[in-house]
Amino acid sequence: MEFIKSVLPPGTSFPPVVLMVLYLVAFVFSWANYGASFRPNISLYGKDLVAAYLAFCIIGTLVYTLVSGALWLRASRYVVRSSHKVRFVIIGVGLLFFFKDFPLFVIEAVALRQHGWRNGFQGFCFVVQLFFFLFPFIVIWLAFIWFITSFLDCQWGTSSVQTHLSLDEALAQPVPLTPPPLMLHENSYSYDKDPSFLVQLGGPTLASTSHKQTPPEARKDDIRGPGGYI
Description:
Distance between the termini: 101 Å
Helix content: over 70%
Keywords: Membrane, Transmembrane, Transmembrane helix
Number of helices: 11
Shape: elongated
Region (Disordered): 207-230
Number of strands: 0
Transmembrane segments: 12-32, 52-74, 86-106, 126-148
């Protein structure tokens, strides 16, 4: 594990990379078990069982290479949110469970039940396949339970009660003491008739300077003499 961490680029999530390595090892054992136990004993197990084992080895390899591996690589390097990482990991594990782990486990269990263990390597491969059957099964079961719990909580839980208030309950909610401020276009004054909104927008400084200014007509009347001349 420490060696894997040392060779990974900075910022890489560790669990998806571990899954990629573990499933790569699992595929190696599956193909080796086919070549060492099933293919040489095709007359013992039957063509259908051996062909099914080979078919699911091929399908699982394609799913791992094209879908699950790509999802885990994206989750380890290019996804920031933890919820998205968990989603990609669960999807990759679920696909391999249905297209590789579950069928191969059933085929190996049938072969062992009918003909027993031919050698120790076949028994070891069955133990490995049993682990890769139980691990994704538990992951999928936990994900399913989490999804059902979240769905029930959204429909009939506390969050649903808070979001679906009745009309009487909504009207019974206390009104804030301070009303929200009005937007500029909602004020009662008119821009065309009353230019005093400029004083309100300008603040105290603009208001104080506006009172000090004298209209031009008033200044002319003040400087006129008694005879009406300047």
